């Protein structure tokens, strides 16, 4: 999955670091990430010295994001990026799947998560005053009313609904991704993970489930969330009642009918592959 970058290690603890030209840089625009493309068409994450304009500007504006293998990496907010000609261009976040090194996808998507949060908290949500960066922790602090905001992480459940040797697989409605998917949704206020899973399964496909078994979790910066995956046994009728606003399709597939999942990024693929190979 996207977080499986061993032997490399992403350290997300907050630190006060001085930006240097050779440090990795993340900047985003309209949901896309700025990347460097070489003459052979290979994509890489840029460093601060490759950004348009003068590096001296970015020394003050660069926000420490995290480190990978003790190498600090920085975020440049869109309004702080200078204009100018470079060999950098914006790409879809999912293009990071093919970027080397192996940790590039996790780093880029996590930086995107931070970018969303910073942009949404430039002003205090209580009194409207301009917020400032926390000095000792990753937080946005209001100097007027002292309101403190920390990065938002939304919990999501994912359900692999099984009926013996059959797995319920779905396809999203109205989304660019057209591959196989599983039922998923955000946890609402006052809900447990288990309660959210049962609700989402009922809402999207009209089925009841039991015997929930935890599979694993995954940070998913695409939606500022962390996903908890469960296998769940069908309880009662297997007749699907599809919510067509959420899904375009939901079908039962036998283990032998499921294609091999080659995506080593998502928990969705990991769960489908685990079922296909008989591990669950």
Automatic annotation (TrEMBL):
Catalytic activity: a 5'-end NAD(+)-phospho-ribonucleoside in mRNA + H2O = a 5'-end phospho-adenosine-phospho-ribonucleoside in mRNA + beta-nicotinamide D-ribonucleotide + 2 H(+)
Gene Ontology molecular function: any one: metal ion binding
Keywords linked to the UniProt accession: Hydrolase, Magnesium, Metal-binding, NAD
GO CC aspect terms: cytosol
InterPro entries per UniProt: NAD-cap_RNA_hydrolase_NudC, NudC-like_C, NUDIX_hydrolase-like_dom_sf, NUDIX_hydrolase_CS, NUDIX_hydrolase_dom, Znr_NADH_PPase
Enzymatic class: hydrolase
SUPFAM superfamilies the UniProt entry points to: Nudix (SSF55811)
Keyword check for Translocase: no
Nudix hydrolase domain ranges (all copies): 151-275
The keyword NAD appears for this protein: yes
Biological process terms in GO annotation: NAD+ catabolic process; NADP+ catabolic process
Transmembrane segments: none
Enzyme Commission code: 3.6.1.22
NCBIfam families: PRK00241.1
Name this protein carries in UniProt: NAD(+) diphosphatase
